[in-house]
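In response to a reviewer's request, we include the raw inputs and outputs for one of the modeled complexes. The two entities were modeled together in a single run.
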Amino acid sequence: MIPYPQMSSEEREAEYQHLLAQFEDLKAQNLKLNMARGKPGEDQLNLTRGIFDIMRSPEDYLSDGIEVRNYGEMTGLPAAKRLFAEVLGCREDQVFVGGNASLQLMYDTVAKGYTHGLLHSSRPWCKEEKLKWLCPAPGYDRHFKITESFGFELITVPMTDNGPDMDMVENAVKDPAVKGMWTVPKYSNPDGIVYSEETIRCIASLKPAAPDFLLMWDNAYCIHDLEDGCETLPDILTLCASYGNPDMVFEFASTSKITLPGAGISCFACSEDNMTYMKKLLDAQVISYDKVNQQRHVLYLKDKAHMIELMRKHAEILRPKFQCVLDALNQEIAPLNIASWRHPKGGYFVSLNAMPGTAKRTLVLCKEAGVTMTNAGATFPYGKDPQDSNIRIAPSFPSVNELKKAVSVLCVCLKLSALEKLNKQ
Amino acid sequence: MIPYPQMSSEEREAEYQHLLAQFEDLKAQNLKLNMARGKPGEDQLNLTRGIFDIMRSPEDYLSDGIEVRNYGEMTGLPAAKRLFAEVLGCREDQVFVGGNASLQLMYDTVAKGYTHGLLHSSRPWCKEEKLKWLCPAPGYDRHFKITESFGFELITVPMTDNGPDMDMVENAVKDPAVKGMWTVPKYSNPDGIVYSEETIRCIASLKPAAPDFLLMWDNAYCIHDLEDGCETLPDILTLCASYGNPDMVFEFASTSKITLPGAGISCFACSEDNMTYMKKLLDAQVISYDKVNQQRHVLYLKDKAHMIELMRKHAEILRPKFQCVLDALNQEIAPLNIASWRHPKGGYFVSLNAMPGTAKRTLVLCKEAGVTMTNAGATFPYGKDPQDSNIRIAPSFPSVNELKKAVSVLCVCLKLSALEKLNKQ
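The model returned the following structure tokens for the whole complex.
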């Protein structure tokens, strides 16, 4: 196959007509497939059936002597803190265990800065003239929307193979209006990039002008490896403290993609001083999160080793799905020189960069053929990809058979939109 | 027994010495009793053992065709909405089902006004010069703390036998800085007052100067009757709408004192326009609340009639506890003319008004004798009871035997502090 850019316009026209016919065939199948969100599939949900009746006897209602069925223990069950502390490599007293969603804890942390200010704020952020926030992109649309909803100016920071472009970050934090940065340090959403140790050290040692700069460390995929023997990141709390920034970072994690999406437990981890400060603010908001569900998770997940075993089972289900996407791209798209993509070793996404100016068009075509994808641009601040290139593929939810069909649709649409673009040039 | 105010100072001195001896005896028993918070007791927790393994088979994972174990359905399961709608007497589409705590939903509603403004706000509340809030008192300390934490000036509204003093409320809402009011319309915390229909109509027909005035209708004890045949309040959403105030009210409820405290489900109910507005704001914050726990509750609670049956069992446990407190007060305190109290027909508290100027001292003495009570003043804005009189008794948590002991301590302390006060006069 000749790469599209090298084709003559006649060759392109022939190829286009050929693909159009394929596309009409696909449309006629009335497909209804979804690769939009990082939702675990049904077989993954079934891995944790045992959690539904794990609390069987009266002694299960007690955890470290605490009656889990009654009010109290705002910061969470000690046993649940120990579990997260082991996974994240921090100390138990640095962990606050929340409800079913780390996203809500993240929103709430930014909201606290906005309404009350953080530990080192001179005033609440809502009293500031101008607020800015660093958004490594491509990134997680829901992160960006949180800070957008509070009126922050979102500053795009390009991603490199090692994480965010740190030259740009170091320069940007000289502006005291820059109040924080989103990060997904392991298997970044959507690129699947693992931040290098150098990048992580560079982040931990930042000297932001804002004394209340907030590093949002979303360790969403901390043990979500597709293969054995994947790397473990250094503990960011220790690292920040060692560089004199103990209060700069809040780390987040959840069991949403370990046990049940939207019915798991979540946590934030932070310095002792931040914990004291946040507890005081949270005391007006929270009596306690759902300790019964915390106890279910403690009993079911047991410890990190046991969790890793469970994550291996998730990986066994996910690996063929990732492979299916990558195989199709390698076979169908690679020879054409119209797109590039990464081969993630964990997380929930394959990030594809289509020929600039064709991502939106590709996804319009996908939709016409019954395949729903994350909106083009969603991985950038304000939902606007300046290159109109990045496409986030979420292969976890469909079955392998559905996925094969969905990816073949995507490939046809990528080709069609590339040819349209090339023919216009 | 001669009422204390009529005693001669010699008689009082003799009585005081007699009581001091009793008090020393009580202290020597090293009691550790708690009547501080409205926590259900262990026997109440055991009523709902069946909820722990109610999701047994694969069909239990589906509700109206929705997979409850996966992400999605931000506003909650339709079946859970139907359940709350039936209990509250509103429509299913007016209900948003949340997580384990209505308090968090309340905090969040006030927070949304503060950070983004409500539907009819001209600007977010954080941009206003001055913010005020109406607090019928005695009231719920956690309500007051929410608005205090956002910097509202708290305005105390006296409670009457029929609810808040509406002359004062009608006058107060003429001030556009007054942005809202807390209410607990049925079995108000702590008085156990049921707002009269006239009061409720008066509230629903308010014409506040602030276009974004927020009526916080905390229907915490909507079906929490101690006796059969208790009254049902008119639906506040319908009533507000009928007076041209459809968007003025947010109603709240939870199953915390129906199933499990801190592990139940909660909701808010509001107008269609408010729902549309809040959904847009919540979209940045919430993917979904815990639908698995919503499904547990739908399967376990079934419908309102079945819930009322369960509430009868709670009442059977609670009634003797309330009776124990009231019996002791009637026998020990009534003849002395040093305090008054109410006989609530539901809810979780007995509200006692001690001789003015003696509440704090009474609770210091209680603590010395090993009985923990809600802080004196907690039922008033800023934790300051201008009369130093109101004491909230929470009889639900201790066993009847513990309660007998705890109330006898309280009675001795009430007497001692009254005599100290009278002797100083």
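As requested, we also summarize the result in words. The two ends of chain B are 21 Å apart (CA to CA). The CA atoms of residues 27 and 368 of chain B lie 7 Å apart.
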